[in-house]
Design goal:
The complex is a heterodimer of chains A (652) and B (532). By secondary structure, chain A is of the alpha+beta class. In chain A, 25% of the residues lie in helices and 33% in strands. Chain B is α/β, with parallel strands linked by helices and 532 residues long. A seven-stranded mixed sheet of chain B has the order 1-2-3-4-5-6-7, sandwiched between helices. In chain B, strands 8, 9, 10, 12, 14, 15 and 16 form a seven-stranded mixed sheet that branches. In chain B, helix 4 runs parallel beside helix 6, helix 13 runs parallel beside helix 15 and helix 17 packs antiparallel against helix 18. The model of chain B has no long low-confidence stretch (mean pLDDT 95). Classes of the chains: A alpha+beta (652), B alpha/beta (532). Chains A and B meet through loops of A and helix 1, helix 3, strand 1, helix 11 and helix 20 of B.
């Protein structure tokens, strides 16, 4: 019987587990790193224990500290979430040895499945199709092949071989890499399916022999093996006769073969013909579990907790209904080359429209949000940059896609940049609409289109105008009750300059008795400091404008726009007149550390002057050539004496 | 609290006629304002820009806080003279770092920013505004100095500019000089007398004598830069407190100087909640009459300029030709005196004198709304003591110390102009509507008086009065007086602070009231002897 559960994790998954635990009357204990001290998962817990430091190695990976924390807080069970220690058999053993309940499969199973070679062998024995080749027998017909590290994961240590003559060389290199990266140089070879689909089956098994295969999930849209969009059911499985029975049958057989207990996932690689091959078994809850929860109505965390406490599952799982799609909102942005850059910084505000449930199944359909951040959160460099998962559950795939793309595009996300726009663009591709989702998705997409902001250049321009008009109403202090920018004689408009994704926008605006002047086709209907209503080419549009320092976020149906207001005045780099350097007071040159003719940088020390028992550094006020050095060591100088002359080189 | 009930009929012929006439006058006014806005014209403004310099108005726009209001004074200064409309200088009140300041900027695109007699009057008026209302002043200097052909009108009285600067400083009113260009000879004393001085590298030239004069005087060879450049003054003479790398930088520095003044206004602040008038200010165009012979109810104007259109009338049933009462304007309390039927009788004069004393008891600024043809004449009124009653009103206006504001809406004739706090009675601010007229009397009356006097003189000499000549003389006089009664002409002579669009009245008065409260509101009970 679990009475108090410690979640050895952070962010949205900690909050997710707490939600189910609370519903079972279980007390919740959190752990947190220093960086997470103010995080929502800490506040929501009944008790929280600090893990000193910031890096995962100092904090969430410190099994012994976490077990101590559980004891200190009176927790009698530990849920590892995903990532961190969730697939660490030694940690699972330590938890059990400490007399605590481990919410996860038996350590032995974790061990077996942790080795890719071992797990494949077990699966092959159980009759599950696997991809494997004997490196002694590889022929041209097998190409291309993929070399993988047995202990690897997340794409690391993988090598594709397309030419037989490269095989030995790549094998040697892969072994060396695996050895240094994972401490285990075991590698294996499998056929490389370039254009496959990533399909996985959710397993839930109790300790009494019941195994549920809760349908499949398709997670083919990945970038560098990082899943971005996941859904159930799989479009491929849906349209391939008999595939689901075989797939679920294989997954069930696999789970039974290894005596699986708890929640787990069997991952398969499938081709367009519906053939599938076992890849690996994840002995934990998956990030994408909510889609399965939505269509089956099963609260997977609740079942995990019940199973861990020794309870029985029903004989058969509930039948799935409808379609669920999840997107992972990351603090990262793609460029047109397909490079994704992580972003850090504050999340000033984050809200999604029409969220029907948080960390729970929306009834009967609707939007689910599993978020690890809230208004004011700061995303740092230490952890995974996933901000939230947004899940749409609808009767059909088309409806779910539409709802999800719509909700994302209208979401208010102020602060750091995210992949939101890219997610919407992906959901709206014809390939996604037709279920043509393969692991090669990004390789085949035009990244210029995917990376393009939802708001086009014209929309950004209008949004910048709205930003300026809102700023014009955001006045305090003397005369703030008078009309904004009022002039008895107007000679020129007000000006604000913003930089956005499409470049710099100079907004000139003049508010007169007759409204906004100088913007053809645009009529100002109403403006406050936070909302602006414009009529643009005959269409009434509302803009919500929010300012955080010089960052301005404009949300409208034209798409979300983030702008940085440029300062009105720029402080010049140096107030000092360039050229001659004179002695600030009478003194003695005690050291000369630069040479005539030398190129010097601004701030570089040229010589030292001793005066009134103090050593003064004479530095270059700007970069240039030390064209004249008028003094030498030991020389007495008067105040105002020229010590050196720096000539600024003209840019040719 | 009483809310004014408006009876304006927007569909009436009178309203439409008034509106059309006023719009036409506003059109003409805009044409004149365009002249001052254009500065020295495209050729000189382009040349100025090409030198990497900002125009005077661009400097002001950068200096004031974004989206804050700017009230320009006397844009028609010099109108009707040979000088450029606006007199090659721009003056006004603007908000810099949250502080209301009086800003004066030479327009170097007009004859190098040379000071003519009208520029001098205009800058002296700006200094007076800063002085009376206890405001910091900022000079944006770039001027070639006096317009030499008119030196006889400038040299002696113009010295006051420097006296005004140091007296302001002595009174604790900060004076800031941003020097963009020439500021030589006498002009060098503008930075010289200022508390805070910024000079622009490569632009500022501040010296008593330039290279040619130095050569002539002492034989010394010297360049502009060593005689009066920004670097020299910032590094050697110490006349410049701040060295600006360019014009924008000078403005940035000017703003930071104001931020560090730690300026606090001395007057009470406005009430926190301000309800706009209930009636549309647009309708003010249809209220002021096209024909000044037609009286109008000033309550219709009051209803469109005061907060919530709330006006509590004083002595509503006594002396009904003058409407008096209390209101708030942009959150500041005011007492209003407005002519209702043109003529001031004894009762109106006594009512005004009492009301002005009450305002001084209540520390309340006063607003005078003119539409008066003067004090009543005739046997009955002279015998009833109209002079002594008019004198009571003039006495009260003259000695009242609460701030006064004046707006000429329509007629402002004769001693009515005085009793209602005309320019000579030093209201803090005075503005005219385009519909206004000011003179000792109406043109027809004046011509008629001259005609009667001439006829009497002719007939006394036993001669026959030339009726045809009389007609011509009357027409000529009427035309001349009419022209000289018009607001553009009077504004050109600095007899007001500007001709304004009636629809801006509330905004302008709000700005003036706020500026006035930079200083304390002081009242008095010390009046001259009231002749009873």
């Amino acid at each position: 019987m679990i009475t108090n559960l410690l979640v050895a994790n952070r962010g949205e998954i900690a909050r997710r587990v707490f939600r189910s635990a609370r519903e079972l009357g279980i007390a919740c204990t959190a752990v947190y790193s220093d960086a997470d001290a103010g995080a929502p998962h800490v506040r929501e817990a009944d008790a929280a224990v600090r893990l000193p430091g910031n890096t995962p190695a100092e904090t969430y990976l410190r099994g012994e500290l976490i077990i101590e924390a559980a004891k200190a807080a009176g927790a009698n069970a530990i849920h590892p979430g995903y990532g961190f220690l969730s697939e660490n058999a030694d940690f699972a053993r330590a938890v059990i040895d400490a007399g605590l309940i481990w919410v996860g499969p038996p350590p032995k199973v974790i061990d077996q499945m942790g080795s890719k070679i071992e797990s494949k062998r077990l699966m092959a024995t159980a009759g599950v199709p696997v991809l494997e080749l004997n490196d002694e027998q590889i022929t041209d017909a097998d190409l291309p092949v993929l070399i993988k590290a047995s202990a690897g994961g997340g794409g690391r240590g993988m090598r594709v071989v397309r030419d037989l003559k490269d095989l030995q060389e790549e094998l040697t290199a892969a072994k060396a890499e695996a050895g240094s990266a994972f401490g285990d140089d075991t590698v294996f070879i499998e056929p490389y399916i370039e254009d496959g689909r990533h399909i996985e089956v959710q397993i839930m098994a109790d300790s009494h022999g019941t195994v549920w295969a809760l349908g499949e999930r398709e997670c083919s849209i990945q970038r560098r093996h990082q899943k971005i969009i996941e859904e159930t059911p799989s479009p491929l499985v849906e349209r391939t006769d008999g595939m689901r029975e075989k797939l679920l049958g294989a997954a069930t057989a696999a789970a039974q073969a290894i005596g699986y207990i708890g929640a787990g996932t069997m991952e398969f690689l499938a081709d367009e013909q519906g053939r599938f091959f076992f890849l690996e078994c994840n002995t934990r809850l998956q990030v994408e579990h909510p889609v399965t929860e939505c269509v089956t109505g099963v609260d997977l965390v609740r079942e995990q907790l019940l199973v861990a406490a020794g309870e029985r599952l029903a004989d058969t799982p509930p039948a799935p209904r409808g379609h669920a799609i999840e997107v992972r909102l990351y603090a990262e942005t793609p460029d047109t080359e397909g490079n994704w850059t992580p972003q850090t910084g504050p999340v000033h505000r984050i809200t999604f429209p029409e969220v029907r449930a948080e960390f729970a199944i929306p009834q009967p359909h609707g939007l689910r949000l599993d978020s690890g951040v809230e208004d004011g959160s700061v995303v740092g460099v230490h952890y995974d940059p996933m901000l939230a998962k947004v899940i749409a559950y609808a009767p059909t795939r088309t409806q779910a896609t539409g709802q999800l793309a719509g909700a994302l595009s209208r979401a208010v996300i102020h602060g750091l940049r995210t992949n939101r726009d890219a997610l919407v663009r992906i959901l709206r591709t014809p390939e996604f609409a037709s279920g043509d989702t393969r692991t090669s998705f990004f390789a085949e997409q035009d990244m210029t289109a995917i990376a393009a902001p939802l708001a086009d250049e014209q929309s950004e321009k209008v949004s910048a105008l709205a930003a300026a008009l809102a700023a014009a109403q955001d006045r305090t202090g003397v005369l703030s009750g008078l009309p904004s920018g009022w002039r008895s004689l107007a000679s020129q408009p007000q000006r604000r300059v913003y930089s956005g994704q499409h470049g710099e926008h100079t907004v000139d605006y003049l508010l007169t008795r007759d409204g906004l002047a100088g913007h053809e086709g645009v009529k100002l209907l109403k403006a406050t400091a936070s909302t602006v209503d414009l009529e643009v080419s005959g269409v009434h549009r509302s803009f919500a404008v929010n300012r955080y320092g010089d960052q301005v976020f404009v949300d409208s149906a034209l798409g979300p726009v983030a702008l940085a207001e440029q300062p009105r005045f720029v402080e010049p780099g140096s107030q000092v007149a360039p050229g001659s350097l004179v002695a600030p007071m009478p003194g003695t040159v005690i050291r000369v550390v630069a040479e005539q003719g030398q190129q010097v940088e601004a701030g570089q020390v040229l010589l030292y002057l001793e005066a009134m028992k103090m050593e003064h550094r004479i530095t270059a006020p700007n970069a240039g050539v030390l064209s004249e050095l008028a003094v030498q060591q030991g020389q007495q100088v008067d105040q105002g004496a020229v010590l050196a002359v720096i000539t600024v080189e003209e840019q040719s | 609290m009483t809310i004014v009930k408006s009876t304006v009929d927007k569909n009436s012929e009178l309203y439409q006629g008034n509106r059309d006439a006023l719009l036409e006058k506003l059109g003409k006014l805009a044409e004149e304002h365009a002249k001052t806005l254009a500065g020295g014209g495209p050729k000189y403004t382009e040349r100025h820009h090409k030198r990497g310099k900002l125009l005077a108005r661009e400097r002001i726009e950068l200096l004031v806080d974004q989206d804050s209001p700017f009230l320009e004074f006397s844009p028609l200064a010099g109108w009707g003279t040979d000088f450029h409309v606006g007199a090659s200088v721009i003056t006004g009140i603007g908000v810099v770092e949250g502080v209301e300041c009086v800003i004066t900027a030479n327009d170097p695109t007009i004859k190098g920013g040379a000071i003519n007699p009208w520029s001098m009057k205009k800058t002296q008026r700006a200094a007076e505004i800063a002085w009376q209302n206890r405001m910091p002043s900022i000079n944006l200097t770039e001027s070639g100095g006096a317009d030499l052909p008119t030196q006889k009108e400038i040299f002696i009285p113009g010295g006051r500019a420097f006296r005004d600067l140091t007296r302001a400083s002595a009174a604790g009113l900060p004076t800031i000089s941003l020097v963009f260009g020439n500021s030589t000879a006498g002009g060098a004393y503008v930075p010289g007398m200022s508390d805070h001085v910024v000079m622009v590298d490569g632009g500022a030239k501040v010296f008593l004598a330039g290279p040619p004069l130095v050569k002539m005087a002492t034989g010394e060879d010297a360049g502009d830069e060593e005689l009066g450049g920004a670097r020299m003054h910032a590094g050697q003479s110490g006349l410049a407190d701040y060295f600006a790398v360019d014009e924008r930088d000078a403005i940035r520095l000017g703003r930071s100087i104001v931020r560090r003044l730690n300026w606090r206004k001395k007057g009470p602040g406005p009430s926190s909640v301000v309800i706009p008038p209930l009636y549309d200010e647009e309708e003010l165009l249809g209220i002021a009459p096209a024909d000044l012979k037609v009286p109008f109810d000033p309550r219709e104007v009051i209803a469109r300029i005061v907060d919530g259109s709330e006006f509590d009338e004083f002595k509503a049933n006594y002396g009904t030709s003058l409407c008096t009462g209390w209101a708030n304007l942009h959150g500041y309390p005011i007492g209003i005196l407005a002519n209702a039927q043109g003529v001031l009788f004894s009762a109106e004069a006594q009512k005004a004198a009492q009301f002005i004393q009450l305002a001084n008891r209540a520390n309340t600024p006063l607003l005078f709304l003119h539409n008066t043809t003067g004090y009543m004449v005739g046997k009955e009124y002279e015998q009833g003591g109209i002079i002594k009653h008019g004198a009571m009103m003039v006495n009260a206006v003259s000695n009242s110390t609460v701030p006064h504001l004046t707006v000429l809406m329509g007629a402002s004739y004769g001693a009515g102009n005085y009793g209602m706090c005309g320019r000579a009675y030093d209201p803090r601010f005075l503005f005219s509507w385009p519909s206004a007229k000011s003179a000792v009397m109406g043109p027809q009356q004046l011509a008629g008086v001259l005609s009667i006097v001439a006829r009497q003189a002719t007939e006394a000499r036993g001669q026959v009065y030339d009726l045809e000549g009389d007609k011509q003389m009357r027409a000529y006089i009427e035309a001349q007086i009419e022209e000289q009664s018009l607001p553009m002409f009077l504004s050109g002579m600095l007899y007001d602070d500007g001709v304004i669009d009636p629809r801006d009245t509330r905004t302008i008065l709000g700005m003036c009231l706020s500026s006035i409260h930079s200083g304390p509101v002081e009242s008095t009970n010390n009046f001259g002897v009231f002749r009873m």
